[in-house]
Specification:
About 30% of the residues lie in helices and about 25% in strands. By secondary structure, the chain is an alpha/beta fold. The protein has a single domain, classed as TIM Barrel (Alpha-Beta Barrel).
């Protein structure tokens, strides 16, 4: 396989300080850094109501979601002016277990307060009703805020197998290449679609994400690709894998 054919790169796991309490930089700054690093697009996946959100949980749903969207909206406004595709996503949390939601629209989220009290299985139904997909984020990460490893093979569409904070030479947290290796084996066992991202919280870009032959045009294009049989590559910024988790080569962008 000629990895040079996969020349478009997309960050699928990115946080802003406006939506994520652990985020360090606002959306416009994150978009600018991603563009300067060489990304063709990003998905803003701020921590939502069940995780480390930056927004007051006591607010009514629509007001909460309106504030939550600010990081994405500022990133998109910058991206629209400067040639960076910015897509909307979320990272939801259930007692330390987290999920990446792709393919939903802000409008659907504003109109669906049922998400607030949804269980993990109910979340999958709500996401599918909105035309999106659910990928379990970093399923084998071990950290103080994750009380136990919990897997939900019946409640997800796929798995984030490559998380750059586990393995990038630039990362200063969550380090453990074995977390990615276990996620790869889990995805293979269940024949799950896979994704990759940096889980980046500041303008220090790690280079993680997916690499594609053709340009992705919008969120539906992204979810269609992830759920298809078409080849795309995964990277943590230091290594390139095929979508099945087979290591292809070491890599420096």
């Amino acid at each position: 396989m000629n990895t040079d054919d996969y020349r478009y790169r997309y960050e699928l796991h990115l946080h802003t300080s406006q939506g994520s309490a652990c985020g360090r930089c606002p959306g416009a700054d994150m978009a600018r850094a991603a563009k300067e690093f060489g990304y063709d697009g990003i998905v803003v996946t701020d921590h939502a109501w069940g995780g480390n959100t930056a927004v007051d949980r006591s607010l009514p749903w629509r007001e909460w979601m309106t504030q939550y969207l600010k990081g994405y909206e500022d990133a998109k406004a910058w991206g629209d002016k400067n040639g960076l595709l910015v897509m909307f996503g979320l990272e939801t949390g259930f007692c330390g277990t987290e999920f990446l939601l792709y393919g939903l629209t802000p409008e659907y989220m504003l109109d669906t307060p049922e998400f607030w009290d949804a269980t993990i299985s109910e979340q999958l139904k709500l996401v599918h009703a909105g035309g999106g997909i659910v990928m379990q984020a970093h399923p084998y990460r071990e950290e103080y805020y994750i009380p136990e490893i919990r897997l939900f093979p019946d409640d997800v569409d796929g798995v984030e197998t490559i998380n750059a904070t586990h393995s990038s030479h630039l990362s200063k947290s969550h380090l453990g290449l074995e977390f990615n290796e276990k996620a790869i084996e889990y995805a293979r066992k269940h024949n799950f679609p896979t994704c990759a991202g940096s889980d980046v919280h500041s303008t220090t870009m790690f280079g993680g994400g997916i690499m594609t032959r053709d340009r992705i045009t919008d969120s539906k294009d992204l979810t269609d690709l992830l759920m298809s049989d078409e080849m795309y590559l995964l990277t943590d910024g230091d290594r390139i894998y095929d979508r099945y988790g087979n290591l292809l080569k070491d890599y420096k962008p």
